Amino acid sequence: MKHCERIFGVRLALVTALLFFAESSRAESRFEPPFFFGIASAPGQAEDALDDIWKDWADGGHVAAYRNQAVPEKRLEFWSKPEVELDWAAKTGIQVYRLGVDWGRVEPAPHRFDAAAIARYRAVLRMVRARHMKVMLTLMHHSVPKWEQARGGWLRPGAQEDFLEFSRRMIVEYHGDVAYWITFNEADVFAPLAYSYGLWPPGGRHPWYSLAALGPLRGETVRAMDRMAEAHDALYDWAHANYPGIQMGVAHNMAHYTGKTALGRLEARYPDALLNWRFPERLRGRMDFFGMNYYGAEWIKNGRLDIDPGEEYSEAGRAVDPAGLLATLTEVARRFPGLPIIVTENGVADSTDVLRPAYLIEHLAAVARARARGVPVAGYILWTLSDNLEWADGYCPKFGLLSVDRAHGLRRVPRASYFLFQKIVESREITEKMRRDAWAAVVAHAGRPRPFCRAPDAVTGLDAPVMRLFSSKDWRLPPLRAKGASDSGAEAPF
User: Fold this and answer.
1) Which of 226, 242, 298, 458 is least surrounded by CB atoms within 10 angstroms?
2) What is the pLDDT of residues 115-125, one digit of tens each?
């Protein structure tokens, strides 16, 4: 009898532990208010009637998958028909819409502002608000005016003052319509691609030491990033002196730099320190929130980015790694204790829509788990609503919840992931069934061909995608295990 009681007691304890862990897991899959969901866009990727440095770069033959597309210069017609995107966005139920103002459009010449352009942007911001979405506004999203580019861009010491004049004017004009201000989007991506690797306008190519940061010896990329940091700090001080309560931060690209070997992991430490942490560390004390864009892992081999055949990738060449998001959120919270964190971009280029549902769920699971551990993540913003111009990669990578038929009036067609995102936003929850169904689709496609928009060098975009096989790797966020689960084989979700 006592033996039976002991067995019963052990089983009861195990069941109790599993029930407790299941309840904890349900808590980790919920996104209670004031946590918010959003969608992000950028003027250089979405606006038509935009005569900017990116149109010049594309007309010069430097943008892949551009000339072979229908009406590439129309982008997404967000200038002439913003209501199309905004209506689709509002129907998802999101609380925040992130967009930008194009510096060159509102200031087409030094010290000369275009009143009509300023008024049009104000009308667009109010369209966002009329659809019950708050505005997150980006001041520089990978583009500078042509006249600023001609002066040397962010390699010129006076660029800070030019940016401050523009930015102060934008805050004066729009402070009543904007909930969150982003000064710079991905300074750590813009600077090296524009000034060191020659892949973005103006096409500056400099030796490897342009990324050097050795005390006063700073290469072109580092000098540009530091000038942007100085401009952010000055604007932050001015804005808070004149508009108490303003919310200002950056959208900083954070990649999980790593390697397959001990040498690769050692080599990954430098880009991690330089690109992930140098810029935000310069802004310490002058951010109201830490905005981070996260797309995946960057595998380093022989000092360069590597496309590893065993990993799963987006069409744009980012290795899928939701565990890296959890680790990065945790590290941001450790380095910047108490500072709210917003995932200002996260998404996957996937025209098949096979990866996107699982990608979305696993990365949101990483956010939920981070929050359950005390990481102050305040919101999650998806990149993006509609397939758009992806900078030098052109229209090849498909990031959208909506596909865009460029040959037939930019007609939007929702993918299945659109409705999944809508359901998550509405319910504020990820369920076990969502996770199982999404992953079953990935498993069913393992080993089948799918489009890929990157050359073997991991950086060059392609006019037409090549075929790559869906990986058989299980890249999901590792599940939490209940105490004693290793004996029973049971595990709790997420």
Assistant:
1) 242
2) 999 999 999 99
